[in-house]
Amino acid sequence: MKKFVNDPKNFVPEMLEGLALAHPDTLRYVPAYNLIMRADAPRTDKVSIVQGSGSGHEPAHVMVVGRGLLDAACPGDVFAAPPMDYVYETTKLLATPKGVLLLVNNYTGDRMAFDMGKEMADADGLRTEILTVNDDVAVTDSLYTVGRRGVAGNFFVIKAVGAAAEQGAELDDLIRIGRKVNDVTRTMGVGLTACTPPAKGSPLFELGADEIEFGVGIHGEPGRERRRLTDADAIVDALLDAVVPDLPYKSGDRVALMINGLGGTPVSELYLLYRHAHQRLAERGIRVGRSYVNEYCTSLDMAGASLTLVRLDDEIETLLAAPADAPVNPF
Amino acid sequence: MKKFVNDPKNFVPEMLEGLALAHPDTLRYVPAYNLIMRADAPRTDKVSIVQGSGSGHEPAHVMVVGRGLLDAACPGDVFAAPPMDYVYETTKLLATPKGVLLLVNNYTGDRMAFDMGKEMADADGLRTEILTVNDDVAVTDSLYTVGRRGVAGNFFVIKAVGAAAEQGAELDDLIRIGRKVNDVTRTMGVGLTACTPPAKGSPLFELGADEIEFGVGIHGEPGRERRRLTDADAIVDALLDAVVPDLPYKSGDRVALMINGLGGTPVSELYLLYRHAHQRLAERGIRVGRSYVNEYCTSLDMAGASLTLVRLDDEIETLLAAPADAPVNPF
């Protein structure tokens, strides 16, 4: 295993400690619950937005805490859901009179932890809602999921509800906005290499020298099929052929286009993928109104990328364009 | 080779085309000279700041073009200096009454191209200056260099002169500021894996399963020595032991601390490195005033990282804190 790591069991807390040390004015780390929160949270004048997930997907979600985005992120260990009592304690810490919106990507473990955490918080009389994200078109059910998985398209939900919450929107309106964005968002990914979890110390699965996992999950779960590695443009074509008909995105639509790196792929290659996707969408009469090329939701050190489309309308586009600050990415 | 690439000889132009397509309001691509420039450049009220280098180091430098940063970047092919006539044409296109500042990292090929390009521009009566960056403490001379190499610390020079140029500073003052920042900036890197150039299709050098290249260059050039892979904290200690005494940085100093990923290392690991560096500096009485944890200057898909320190004073800190926009990183 060639990684920067000390004792693998401290991988997550050491990363979180580093994150808080690097951003002392804006972020606070609460070791007892593995929690990263905005230094100014909870703010009584807004709904708090919280997301949890396994670690190993950074910047998701601990590095998406900031103005106009998440108020807190409550991660589990690498590729493991956060404990339900951490979800509960996080919800209590972030509680405001306007409520707490809990975002969950659709994985069975995460959903269980959040359902239980919410139930405990509700028993305390707190006002909470859960919104589930499931943008991945690759498979219906998978290794860790009943139904579609939540992957990089999650960021558009965060950005939209984060912006609306900053403007004072109420909890029920945030649920409406979040569902609306999730409903017009579709993603598909491709893995070129396997990732290596620090505690395992070896690749999570085997991929041949000329094989790619088409529709890969962000924990290395199998996708639709193993394919031969082809040139970049052909890979983009295949991703678009899976994503575009799924909604479907149609001629005349304007979209946000995200090319998300999975952790081990340099940004140069992401822009090369972006180029062809943008051109192919133009040929289909689909106009790219907003572009996102970066790492948003990774799978440790996996080489690979995902492609996300969001169908824009004026409300969504305005929310996506609102000011936001996060440690790693411009939003 | 497991990369997103079409014909390797189109790797750079396709990436640049994607970059311009993704940022149509702010960037313009001039294919004739491999040039990325601000859409609003040249602005007659400011000095234009231009940097060129080999490609493969993205975001350096084509993704550092924007407000308060570079006005243009003129890249060569992967790990190859830009042709001198591209430097000349870029300088002509960016010429303003206040002049053009050409930034060059210290590699023999880049310096030759920029010296010749400048000479041709000067013969046309243009006002130009060259500023050379050489922040890498690893080696004195190297495979492509007489004297120290310019690596990720380059970004602090760009940010400082970019901010000052935006505020209307004259060419001679930008030279003063750039030299001052370069003089207090030191970097050292470590490579865990080799990188694979698209046109070569195989790793550029060999590293054993438990070997690291300590002091590696951003083209995979040898550093100080091959070492055994140790835990992350010990690697940080070794980097600090090389960087801190070199200026030296002393108790009472306040610094900017950058942990830069080399392309294949996820941001989670970078924050883990940051944590220990921040703590060790505090033990030495050195206070971190500004933090940078991200990919700034990569070596294609190499796993690894570099550590940079900049000794801050009020002038440098104010310039580093000035507003700036770039496609990939918050600055």
Structure, described:
- The structure is a homodimer of 331-residue chains.
- Chain A is α/β, with parallel strands linked by helices and 331 residues long.
- Chain A contains eight helices and twelve strands.
- Chain A has helices spanning 11-22, 84-94, 108-123, 154-166, 171-183, 232-243, 267-283, 314-320; strands at 27-30, 35-38, 48-55, 72-78, 100-105, 128-133, 185-191, 211-214, 225-228, 254-261, 287-294, 304-311.
- In chain A, the strands form two sheets. A six-stranded mixed sheet of chain A has the order 1-2-4-3-5-6, sandwiched between helices. A six-stranded mixed sheet of chain A has the order 9-8-7-12-10-11.
- In chain A, helix 4 runs antiparallel to helix 5 (171-183).
- The model of chain A has no long low-confidence stretch (mean pLDDT 96).
- The interface between A and B is large, with 62 and 62 residues.
SSE layout:
Two copies of one chain form a homodimer.
Chain A: H1 11-22, E1 27-30, E2 35-38, E3 48-55, E4 72-78, H2 84-94, E5 100-105, H3 108-123, E6 128-133, H4 154-166, H5 171-183, E7 185-191, E8 211-214, E9 225-228, H6 232-243, E10 254-261, H7 267-283, E11 287-294, E12 304-311, H8 314-320
Parallel strand pairs in A: 3-4, 3-5, 5-6, 10-11
Antiparallel strand pairs in A: 1-2, 2-4, 7-8, 7-12, 8-9, 10-12
Profile the largest sheet of chain A: 6 strands, mixed
**Overall geometric form of chain A:** globular
For the record, the CATH architecture of the largest domain in chain A stands as 3-Layer(aba) Sandwich
Q: How many E strands of chain A?
A: 12
Q: Tell me what portion of residues of chain A adopts beta-strand conformation.
A: 15-25%
